[in-house]
Amino acid sequence: xxxxxxxxxxxxxxxxxxxxxxxxxxxxxxxxxxxxxxxxxxxxxxxxxxxxxxxxxxxxxxxxxxxxxxxxxxxxxxxxxxxxxxxxxxxxxxxxxxxxxxxxxxxxxxxxxxxxxxxxxxxxxxxxxxxxxxxxxxxxxxxxxxxxxxxxxxxxxxxxxxxxxxxxxxxxxxxxxxxxxxxxxxxxxxxxxxxxxxxxxxxxxxxxxxxxxxxxxxxxxxxxxxxxxxxxxxxxxxxxxxxxxxxxxxxxxxxxxxx
Length: 259
Fold this sequence. Notes:
- The chain is of the alpha+beta class.
- The chain has helices at residues 36-72, 77-109, 155-158, and strands at 2-6, 11-15, 23-24, 29-33, 112-114, 119-124, 131-132, 137-142, 148-154, 166-171, 176-189, 195-201, 215-216, 233-236, 239-246, 249-254.
């Protein structure tokens, strides 16, 4: 399970507190971008919200006074209607600037990049001072607890494998043998090799890294065979002969050896 953490903003990279090999938890900061312009935008939007809220409160107070004067006969209906229009306009403007403020806060949040999962840093693609662009990975993480072996299995063998089967996996570089569970069988055979991708997952020791080579054991089932000691087979020209005792007598028989 691997993921690349990318920026949503065009901004300079201010800090990257992690390096390749560092373990991180979900929510840990992996990079900080230059946010001066974003902070200024948030403050400006907050000031607009306060101004709009004050205008709305003044319009509501004026409307209440106009209604009292209208009840007493000292104001016209037109003045009350104008006051109601002013309140609706002020409320609409407050709602609009509040949305702008929320958007500015969201944009400011994008200046801090966090790990979306527990994992290990595989690579950091930029350095402090570089320009982060939308969609460009900043760091790449992988989850060592969710390692996956992808094996190309011959069509005939793949028919005997099912999702959920427990299989043996060998990591030859480490001399390691472990067990995994079949999580997925890709329902498509490669045209050249006529193999099917079988994906096996399972917990792995810390010494196993992404990209290592491994082998998957596919059980073939039971088979009944006739075996003899290799030293009992005598080769004469193109023949392979075995001496067999039957009814107290020695018989020489030609055999065809298997694997």
